[in-house]
Amino acid sequence: MEEFIQNMPKAELHLHIEGTFEPELMFEIAQRNQISIPYASVEELKNAYKFSCLQDFLDIYYQGAQVLQHEKDFYDLTMAYLKKCKEQNIRHTEIMFDPQTHTERGIPFESVLTGIHNACLDAQKEFGISFVLIMSFLRHLSEEEAFKTLKQAEPFKDKIMAIGLDSSEKGNPPLKFVRVFQAAVEQGYIPLAHAGEEGDADYIWQAIDLLQVHRIDHGNNCITDRNLVEEIIERDLALTVCPLSNVALKVVPNIDKHPLKIMMQLGLYLTINSDDPAYFGGYINENFNAIQNSLDLSRWDLYTLAKNSFVYSLASFDEKSKYL
Ligand code: ES4
Ligand code: ZN
């Protein structure tokens, strides 16, 4: 089965580029930028990756991202991830980035975007991997801050296909971002959002009704609401499920208890994704292997999940048609 998983062409639809920052590269970039990391070694840093909830993780994730300063840092980070994609037979990837994590500490928006985008262009040429960029708003910050970010993105609009909503979910409902999402959609961005990871089903209703999202990131908690499940299916919205993330952040008690199979049986359209692979113990193939081992998925289930990743991607018809 591992070979079957490795050999399947796959698309990744839920991936935070800051979450691909491997400790080894973090130390390397910290050194060349002369920034000190509050951990003595790669081992010590890895030992700190024990989380009891989303916020625990976010605190460490934002700390790690502070090391990134120059365009080249963003290029190197992104290229390292794209090499992984090549190794794992990921043919298309939709990369989320959090500009506010960087602009808040004085890094120009342009350095972030250009570094990431140039790495994607090079990987497209060298490895044949297609890509889409998703600019994510940090939901723990204000609506006003999100509007500022939307403004900063304007000169680079043609390089960014979609917007997302991430960071601390509880207490920061989609409702808080209705106006900025409306403005972004008017500018041509496709709306996406994290919903129902830690937040309850009501946050998913808000994401689909108020933000009009085209896809739901995580969405696990929809299974507590029958009508919501029906509505998601009716609107043909996919959920980007991240199994190892859910285990690491205690969204599920352990991998054997992951509701993925139940969700598939309910008729939901799911994809498998790595979220923050450097922090949660693996890239896409490790996520597929974990879920296959624990839930005894068939080849047909695996094939369906991989097929969905292309069907529900934002890739052009030309790109999709290579795989469907
Ligand atoms: C995230 Cl797993 C998760 N949830 C919400 N926001 C995030 N940013 C990076 N990973
Ligand atoms: Zn995420």
Automatic annotation (TrEMBL):
The keyword Ribonucleoprotein does not apply. The record marks 218 as: Important for catalytic activity. It comes from Namhaeicola litoreus. InterPro entries: A_deaminase_dom, ADE, Ado/ade_deaminase, Metal_Hydrolase. Binds 1 zinc ion per subunit. HAMAP family: Adenine_deaminase. It catalyses: adenine + H2O + H(+) = hypoxanthine + NH4(+). Belongs to the metallo-dependent hydrolases superfamily. Adenosine and AMP deaminases family. Adenine deaminase type 2 subfamily. The active site is at 197 (proton donor). This is Adenine deaminase. Zn(2+) binds at residues 14, 16, 194, 275. Substrate binds at residue 276. Keywords: Hydrolase, Metal-binding, Nucleotide metabolism, Zinc. Residues 9-324 form the Adenosine deaminase domain. It is an enzyme of class 3 (hydrolase). Catalyzes the hydrolytic deamination of adenine to hypoxanthine. Plays an important role in the purine salvage pathway and in nitrogen catabolism. Its EC number is 3.5.4.2. It comes from the Bacteria. Its cofactor is Zn(2+). GO terms for molecular function: hydrolase activity.
